[in-house]
Amino acid sequence: MRIVLDAMGSDNCPVPDVAGALLAAEEFGEPIILVGDEARIRQELARQPNQNLKNIEVVHAPDAVLMDDKPGVVGKAKPQSSMHIGMNLVRDGLADAFVTAGNTGAAMAIATLYSLHRIPKVKRPALSAIVRLEGRKVILLDIGANADSKPEWLAQFAIMGKVYAQKALGLENPRVALLSNGEEDTKGSQLYQEASELLHALPLNFTGNIEPKEVLLGGADVVISDGFTGNVFIKTAEASMSLIFNAIRAQVESSWRYKFGALFLRPAFRSIYQNLDPVEIGGAPLLGVNGVVIIGHGRSDPRAIKNAIRQARAAVSGRIIDAIREGIQDSGTEAS
Amino acid sequence: MRIVLDAMGSDNCPVPDVAGALLAAEEFGEPIILVGDEARIRQELARQPNQNLKNIEVVHAPDAVLMDDKPGVVGKAKPQSSMHIGMNLVRDGLADAFVTAGNTGAAMAIATLYSLHRIPKVKRPALSAIVRLEGRKVILLDIGANADSKPEWLAQFAIMGKVYAQKALGLENPRVALLSNGEEDTKGSQLYQEASELLHALPLNFTGNIEPKEVLLGGADVVISDGFTGNVFIKTAEASMSLIFNAIRAQVESSWRYKFGALFLRPAFRSIYQNLDPVEIGGAPLLGVNGVVIIGHGRSDPRAIKNAIRQARAAVSGRIIDAIREGIQDSGTEAS
């Protein structure tokens, strides 16, 4: 299996990207193709303590997508970017998956409009995340690929989410729910009410609307939303939890008495912190694109890069693209 | 000042409602008009330890809105509900404000379509909440009155939110921001991008888009959203924080060592819990309706009912209706 890594992706690129590629090449024993500014990549490779470069390949890309590049124009404006050239390797059958810690919107636009394109009959790709909540894993989509959605797109997100849960969580018949402002079918905006009707008719275990609280309590395995609401949801959950942990930390630091008490509680805090992590595990797969694309955090460290590569490998082994193609075909959603 | 309280509002009505009315009549020394099933109200009044009924009046309403009544039909189906009759007292100048812990959607529909109607030139009322975050107060609207919105409505929500922040938070020039999935003006759905353009042109201190994290860190005094997203935001923040507190409680209970440590930390936890409360303070005002309407939690206890009445009194004293009328007129938003 050959995985392409965008060496110019992360906020501190190419430092964590190159180091992560080496970790992955070592652990998985198969080729990692670094795409980006070859001189900078070679310089960074030369700095690594691990000089076993057997499974490292470098493909030069003269340009790079920046975090503030506009998704709508970057695909056309920078046809020689590492993202563009890297995805084309997958499109042309020279590699099996593409991983980047770069600009999500740009990756979505380049994949959809210029390089890999969509899986046949998929209307829009969705950005998905696996979040961990007290030991359970929940798949959320769309968390930000599309700022505006249509009911038929949400219906397809549900099919793709189901397939992804089967592959990534090993669930045969995952519970799929629709994020909403109330549990009754009459709740939600027009978009959500129409999506709910479509979802009831699909071949999946659709359990209806779900409120944020129930999502956090593990009331569904796959939670469907439009990209705007899903993005607000995941960012709000993440920020709320951080706020509490930071407030606890600040309080504990404020007095010797609290510091003393906290000594006893340290393992408890650590366990809570590790089990309640609304931040995505590894990277976010761009589901619906005709090739495996995993998007990691901009602030990824080498370990996070390696984990995103691991996730890409699992998606390739699980034949996720074929499974989505079949799922969409069997669902009849292409006609709606 | 005469405040009308819906005696049939809360989940356990009329028990906490009647007791809250007595607390308020005692504390504020002015009339509270209880509207609802007169026999049940009198029965409940007779049970109270405090038998000073000097400032308590009762108006009979033969019907009541239930929590699962459909907002779209209940106004027409139950013209004799306590909500309907209570709001009419305000509309007809027989009282100054209406308070209910009942069905939010029904209160919105009855107020807008059947009883108080909108303040002239207001396109849609919005449900607002004041939340407390580490000692700061933030006003959010719309948190659920309208499942679908238009850009012009969001622009008016901003004007109403500004006026409400001036009155309720005492801020002369509150910072108004638009909830979004990114800080750049290009972020957000079409609705939000169009709203952002309108907001830049309004006579207010518009600071642009704001992400959930910055809302929680106090980056704005007034946060504007559509009712669907605002509802998901506030419910997600509330549920995320509860989840952490519950996880801490469960961990602490799980071992003697943790229980011992927690003894030292108890005041720290209490302080955090009290300062980080994304739950609304008292009730949520329905802004834009031509009369003061405050909607409390269904699970209100007598103290919460009293606080919602206090909030209604402050809105009446502050002449919030006049201020919103003037704000909307001066903004020119009625023409957009």
Give the structure's gist in a few sentences.
Chain A has helices at 15-28, 38-47, 71-77, 82-91, 104-114, 151-168, 190-200, 212-216, 227-253, 256-275, 302-317, 320-331, and strands at residues 3-6, 32-36, 56-60, 97-100, 126-133, 136-141, 175-179, 205-210, 222-224, 276-277, 284-287, 292-295. By secondary structure, chain A is of the alpha/beta class. In chain A, strands 1, 2, 3, 4, 5, 6, 7, 8, 9, 10, 11 and 12 form a 12-stranded mixed sheet that branches.
Question: Can you walk me through this structure?
Answer:
- 2 copies of one chain form a homodimer.
- The radius of gyration of chain A is 21 Å and the shape is globular.
- The first copy, chain A, has helices spanning 15-28, 38-47, 71-77, 82-91, 104-114, 151-168, 190-200, 212-216, 227-253, 256-275, 302-317, 320-331, and strands at residues 3-6, 32-36, 56-60, 97-100, 126-133, 136-141, 175-179, 205-210, 222-224, 276-277, 284-287, 292-295.
- Helices cover 48% and strands 17% of the residues of chain A.
- Chain A contains 12 helices and 12 strands.
- In chain A, strands 1, 2, 3, 4, 5, 6, 7, 8, 9, 10, 11 and 12 form a 12-stranded mixed beta sheet that branches.
- Chain A is an alpha/beta fold.
- The relative contact order of chain A is 0.17.
- The interface between A and B is large, with 61 and 61 residues.
Element-by-element helix/strand order of chain A: EHEHEHHEHEEHEHEHEHHEEEHH
Q: Which class best fits the helix and strand makeup of chain A?
A: alpha/beta
Helix content of chain A: 40-55%
In terms of quaternary structure, what is this?
homodimer
Let me know the number of strands of chain A: 12
